[in-house]
Amino acid sequence: LWVATTDSSLTCWQLPGRSADGTESVTESPDVKPGTQQMLSTPIVTIQGAAAVRRYAVLPTKVQILTEDCNGDVSLWDVMAGTCSRRWKKAPAAKTGVYEELHKSFMSQQVAVPTWFTPSARSGSLEVTLEVQTCFNAEAYASDLAMTTSEEMRINLGERLLHAIFRKWAEAQPQPPHQEVDQTPELKFRELEQVPVCISDEGVVLIKTTAAQLPRAKADVVPLWVVQSVLHGHYAPRESLKLSFFLAPHPQEDLPQLPPGSNKLSAAKVLKLHKVIAYVEERLNVDQKLLPLRLVCNDKPLPPEMTLASVRTFVWKNGGEDMLIHYLAKQA
What we know:
By secondary structure, the chain is α+β, with helices and mostly antiparallel strands.
């Protein structure tokens, strides 16, 4: 009798009173009393399966997921590559793995990125779901994902992931004449033959296949919003990718105001503060001895690599009001 349970392994048990080939057997254990059933303790065959994911957490960067499987082993997954970037095996003598420790460390990062996908592990494997309502709500600098050395190029995370998964499908579609070549760098994504894809509409599964086999899908299976994004580069974030903020000299500093019209800005949420510092320095005529300038918000020093979104979430915390950032001279 072959048995499958919530465990990922398959086991084969030999039923009492039957031989391995299924024929009846009169051999009984001398320890079993007449009229009782013999309990089975060891299967005759076990086919080991991969350990199932039992818990997971999307990390603040929103491009990494931490998982723990039923063996206690912990993995760090790169969503933008579709691969496991690091594993921590549970020590043989340990009662638990390192999931709790790593989770606490990762989640303490002051990084604010909008949610743009939904994770799941209902099947025992890690799954990521992209939906039109949230897919295009997050950006990142391409250089932070090792896609380019340019520090100016921003990418939409959901758009690039869709482009990577549907690359083979897009190549199989008729190309319109005079279409502009997409200059956005490609993700270094895993082999598409190894990427399962499930397309559903309002809970109804339309197709289950691999990313490499998507070109064989029927024309109407791929959702229109995916077609528009992958083939034409058209997508619409449901949340704004920018935020507004004010810049002013700190009240305790004798620094000049910015020129009229340049003290209120609207910039990408992922903009890093070192670019804001450069913006202020270019527009102020101050002694070079005062440079580089520093930034504070609510009198808390701001690291140059922090993003505007992170400042608003972790430092400003004043709801819908436009954020106020003060600039100061360098420390003596």
